[in-house]
């Protein structure tokens, strides 16, 4: 019920509020025009009134557009991140985080069978620590996220940091993440051990 309220009902009501909040601003030009304030006999005054009402019209339309978008999101519901097909062939079977300000994220992460938001995602064995791609499902900016909570990849969670990126490749290498005021995080491709290799490798 909490997810239904958060993801479906609340956006609809918020969207309705925004739509009607922006409606008076959108109607300002029409009200002024019908009131006869824009008189072609006085071109300079008419030009001033037109320039005066344009910001109201644009602001009203923008707020109404946001409201309609929220209503649509509430009616349709958020898209399941695991339903988005993988954009590229599967990546490495495992990666290793060798540098992170939070020691709990250091270690081997293994690629999961399904994709999240069209990309591979990795989870640390026997923990909820994971690396996944966030595709602006709940707003914000797209990028790679590290988090330690159980989620499908829809929420904008990044307790372990966030790296802005709109491509498809994994953020391999030593990069400055948005974690603890811009600390460095190092991710490497993990070569399989002899025990992990298949008989044909």
Which range best describes the helical content: under 10%, 10-25%, 25-40%, 40-55%, 55-70% or over 70%? 25-40%
Instruction: Kindly report the spatial arrangement of strands forming the biggest sheet.
Output: 6-5-4-3-2-1-8-7
Strand percentage lies at 15-25%
Main sheet makeup: 8 strands, antiparallel
- Uncertain residue segments: 197-201
Tally of structural domains = 2
For the termini, the CA-CA separation is 49 Å
The topology string of helices and strands comes to: HHEEEEEEEE
Rg from alpha-carbon coordinates: 25 Å
Question: Helices and strands: which structural class?
Answer: alpha+beta
Shape: elongated
Calculate the mean pLDDT score and round it: 84
**Tally of helical runs:** 2
Number of strands: 8
Write up what this structure looks like.
The protein is of the alpha+beta class and 201 residues long. The chain has two domains: 2-77; 94-189, no CATH class. 33% of the residues lie in helices and 19% in strands. It contains two helices and eight strands, in the order ααββββββββ. It has helices at residues 2-34, 43-76, and strands at residues 94-99, 107-111, 122-124, 130-134, 143-147, 161-164, 173-176, 184-189. Strands 6-5-4-3-2-1-8-7 form an eight-stranded antiparallel beta sheet, with no helix packed on it. Helix 1 (2-34) packs antiparallel against helix 2. The two termini are 49 Å apart. The model is unreliable at 197-201 (pLDDT under 50).
């Amino acid at each position: 019920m909490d997810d239904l309220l958060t993801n479906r009902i609340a956006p609809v009501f918020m969207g309705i509020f925004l739509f009607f909040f922006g409606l008076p601003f959108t109607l300002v030009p029409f009200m002024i025009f019908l009131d006869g304030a824009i008189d072609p006999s006085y071109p300079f005054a008419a030009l001033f009134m037109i320039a005066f009402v344009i910001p109201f019209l644009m602001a009203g339309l923008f707020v109404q557009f946001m409201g309609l978008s929220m209503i649509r999101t509430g009616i349709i519901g958020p898209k399941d991140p695991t339903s988005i097909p993988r954009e590229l062939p599967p990546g490495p079977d495992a990666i290793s985080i060798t540098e992170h300000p939070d020691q709990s994220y250091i270690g081997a992460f293994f690629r999961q069978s399904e994709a999240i938001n069209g990309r591979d995602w990795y989870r640390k064995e026997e923990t909820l620590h994971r690396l996944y791609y966030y595709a602006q499902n709940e707003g914000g900016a797209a990028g790679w996220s590290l988090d330690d909570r159980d989620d499908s990849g829809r929420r904008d969670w990044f307790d372990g940091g966030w790296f802005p990126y709109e491509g498809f490749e994994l953020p391999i290498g030593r990069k400055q993440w948005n974690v603890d005021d811009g600390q460095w995080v190092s991710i490497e491709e993990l070569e399989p051990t002899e025990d992990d290799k298949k008989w044909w490798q």
